[in-house]
Write a structure and sequence with these properties.
Distance between the termini of chain B: 36 Å
Structural class of chain A: mainly beta
Mean pLDDT of chain B: 97
Low-confidence stretches of chain B: none
Number of strands of chain B: 11
Shape of chain B: globular
Oligomer: heterodimer
Strand content of chain B: over 45%
Radius of gyration of chain A: 13 Å
Radius of gyration of chain B: 13 Å
Helix content of chain A: under 10%
Chain lengths: 119, 103
């Protein structure tokens, strides 16, 4: 069974840092791109970042560029999202999701990790 | 960047109704359009990929159509478990969502 499990969420002060992890099981992790998508309280889905299957390429939304860094360790079946210089507007549930390929459908999602940025 | 819009933003419908949700891209995206269902407090679920392909395990009452800039998600014979918010997605852009509520 394909599973994605996020961890590392929590409460952090503005300007602080947090690292999310997304640990996968049930499939060949190194074959798939992984995306991060977030959802603010009562808001819609917003794409944050993606990383290629071998980690050779990454991309970021303008709102997080220069503050967030995505990486992966294929030996541990884990993708990381390092979030620095956090702002109140980064408060959201963060999901990791598996990219199924052509046209970038996100076929499997984790349960989400809540990040709250507040003093 | 390509922007995605959806209409309506919300709708009320009854069990058994046919529901249509529209998604529009700011420029042609061929058939690179996906649809998701999200229930409150849960992760999104992929329903339709590449405009018209039903994801494994999704009931056949869901269907998608369109190409270029205009796309449609149709739910035939709405069921109680279909009340949720629906999002379209192209690449790194999601539509704002359509909330389907019980009339």
């Amino acid at each position: 069974e394909v599973q994605l499990v996020e961890s590392g969420g929590g409460l952090v002060q503005p300007g602080g840092s947090l690292r999310l992890s997304c640990t996968a099981s049930g499939f060949t992790f190194s074959d798939f791109w992984i995306h991060w998508v977030r959802q603010g309280p009562g808001k819609g889905l917003v794409w944050v970042s993606h990383i290629r299957s071998d980690g050779s390429g990454t991309a970021y939304a303008d709102s997080v560029k220069g503050r967030f860094t995505v990486s992966r360790d294929n030996t541990k079946n884990t993708v990381f999202l390092q979030m620095d210089s956090l702002r109140a507007e980064d408060t959201a549930v963060y999901y990791c999701a598996r990219d199924e390929g052509f046209s970038t459908p996100l076929g499997y999602w984790g349960q989400g990790a809540l990040v709250t940025v507040s003093s | 960047d390509i922007q995605m819009t959806q209409s309506p933003s919300s709708l009320s419908a009854s069990v058994g109704d046919r529901v249509t949700i529209t998604c529009r891209a700011s420029q042609s995206i061929s058939s690179h359009l996906n649809w998701y269902q999200q229930k409150s407090g849960k992760a999104p679920k992929l329903l339709i990929y590449t405009a018209s392909n039903l994801q494994n395990g999704v009931p056949s009452r869901f269907s998608g159509s369109g190409s270029g800039t205009d796309f449609t998600l149709t739910i035939n014979s709405l069921q109680p478990e279909d009340f949720a918010t629906y999002y379209c997605q192209h690449s790194a852009s999601f539509g704002p969502g359509t909330r389907v509520e019980i009339k």
